[in-house]
Amino acid sequence: MGNAVFLAELVELAGTQGVDLLMWLTARGALSGNVATVHSNHHIPISNTATGLLALAQPA
Fold it and tell me: Between 20 and 30 A from 50 (CA), which of 7, 24, 42, 43?
């Protein structure tokens, strides 16, 4: 339940992008050392709602 409060506070302070950043940092932190970029894409449509994709692989 503590995380729900933290995320709600983060959204209030940084907007939903703050939660996105936290999730990206957590996912990257789960990988150790060097990683290889498998795929990377970023798209900004006319509506100005950008989307991005980053697929990483950890060497065996």
Answer: 7
